[in-house]
Amino acid sequence: MSIAERVNKINPSFTLQMATKAAEMRSKGIDVINFSVGEPDFNTPKHIRDAAKKALDQGYTKYTAGPGMIELREAICEKLNRENKISYDPSDILVSNGEKQSLYNACQAIFNPSDSVIVFSPYWVSFPEFVKMADAEPVLVNTLPESNFEPDFEDLDAKIDSSIKGVIINSPSNPTGGVWRNDAIVKLLKLAKKHGWVVISDECYERLVYDGAFTSAEKLNQTHDIGATVLTCMSLSKTYAMTGWRIGYSAGPKDIIKAMSKIQGQATSCANSIGQKASIEALIGDQTCVEDMKSLFLKRRDLIVELLNDLPGVKCANPKGAFYVFPDFSSYLNQKVNGKLLKDTFDISEYILDSVKVVTVPGDGFGARGHIRFSYATNRKIIQEGMNRVKKALEMI
Ligand SMILES: Cc1ncc(COP(=O)(O)O)c(C=O)c1O
Asked: What's the maximum distance between 2 C-alpha atoms anywhere in the chain?
């Protein structure tokens, strides 16, 4: 059986692989601590679950309109207006099976073979793959770890050419937790306008910003009268602890949304009906749950940053958003342990897993040499125990 060429071009999601590895170890009875999780550890809030139960009983069990139920698209517009101060019409919105599908649709709808797309490194693992699945080329641009992982504009300038058609931004960021200052986003939007790039702004961690306010790229685009083409992609997954419900959405220019809808219509028809009904409640119902989860995440962030900075040879900045920290373990690169050379963070993460049964995600997989991603979407006791174990592992090097 011969498999299509395009499959060979893309990499599997290695963050999912790490999560699978942790689950396998646990199923064998191994007491493993998992810092690789990319989802809140909380259950979906009760009022949202209740809305889903009610929808089931009321018979919302059928296909919906392809771009999403009109009531949900209206609720999304209300939320974008209320939270992000940007106004859209329901016809500017496409609801998808998680924001992952929104981003996939966007790349399929916007890019042609031979186009290039800027992706900032460290990047969320799926960005370069979405670009490659559209037969376009990701162009990796450095960021500055000392400045919230904002773009290194010198590196960007050096890489600009006429093949670039778009840029993907993600603030707050997975994997770094970095939140870009508005100035950096404005500078990028101006470049996008000048060169005619489409900006795809992945804002799935918008509600998890701990120090200062979050501003959507499209809001900055409007406030500064820049006129860049911005597609905003958002998700219910992280904000409302709804990863399994698979609801995300895009808001942007009608022609792009229409093209994305056409692709989605042939691929998956629509997002699931019960999830859509639950999402209406999530977006326009009581928002206290969001603030409650955020304040717990903030306490955990402060704890994990403190414990990481206590580890010998490890430096950890205080990220302003999401639920990831991205400490620098480069002082361990090229050291030997049990006769094995630690040549990259894949080796360091593997050593930590084998020696003390703690799962982390090597930064090399996100294009960041020397860094390791830890998710703090887990409780304080586990954070404390996990860090004790990592300390033991490092002391043995
Ligand atoms: C940066 C980023 N974008 C998008 C997503 C996709 O979210 P979902 O498909 O669950 O809406 C994730 C999930 O981990 C993410 O980290």
From this structure: 64
